[in-house]
């Protein structure tokens, strides 16, 4: 998703949050085998209302994530886990799910409350990035990736469609050009979910459901536009958010299987990362950019790796 090795991105996230450096500049070793992430006790949800943590994004020196419940409207807030382990709320009533960061250090948020992709400043001011396709609001934007040239890709399943009136007739993946024009990337996935870009920004990855199983679909990007997709991984558990390391490996959350499966750019599985509750998403961060943070059902986990990766 980003232009630079995350060690650089962590220092320059405000200027270039959208991609890595070329793989040749990447240092580190990919994970292998079966691994287990450690729960961060300070981030445990103490609320009695069921819900999920979602959309982790590393900005400067802290992890930000959405915290939403399954109540009417799916109430949501954006929380911050700082380097000391303290958790605080930075934006109340954000209505958000997946998060990213733009070139100015603002949070991009897939907001089911507003049926749009929103931009939040860190002091809580909101504006729409994109709110409609063919004069209709979206269903419930879920996850996104921002390319180096400013092109935005996002998924629009119907998981939180009931949060507000209106919606689309299909669940789709969208591309938003720099001029704000919206086009459809794919409308054949049932509830498309996780969205990521390769380190060089030349492949778009999206996961979702086909029939009763999940797939990881890859779309080569030519001239800034995604081409016809193909299923890189043809059978997954229920897929959710994703992260990509600087070597190009894709970390796919399999929600109810309580794991992340790690695949090479060719689709070969090389590792499994287990957690102890349903899992939603992942992002790289930490002081050296090599800590994988994982969100899920009222929990944040971490795993120290030997490779840097995407901050959302």
Mind explaining what this structure looks like?
This protein has 312 residues and is mostly beta strands. The chain has one domain (6-307): TolB, C-terminal domain (Neuraminidase, 6 Propeller). The chain has one helix and 30 strands. The strands form eight sheets. Strands 2-26-25-24-23 form a five-stranded mixed beta sheet, with no helix packed on it. Strands 18, 19, 20, 21 and 22 form a five-stranded antiparallel beta sheet that branches. A hairpin with a 5-residue loop joins strand 14 and strand 15. The longest helix is centred in the first third of the chain and has 7 residues, at 6-12. The model is unreliable at 1-19 (pLDDT under 50).
Q: Which word captures the global form?
A: globular
CATH level 1 name: Mainly Beta
What's the average pLDDT? Answer: 91
Helix content: under 10%
CATH level-four homologous superfamily name: TolB, C-terminal domain
CATH architecture name: 6 Propeller
Total beta strand runs: 30
As a percent range, the share of strand residues is over 45%
In which order are the strands of the major sheet placed? 2-26-25-24-23
Instruction: Indicate the radius of gyration in whole angstroms.
Output: 17 Å
Number of helices: 1
The structural class is: mainly beta
As for the CATH topology, it is Neuraminidase
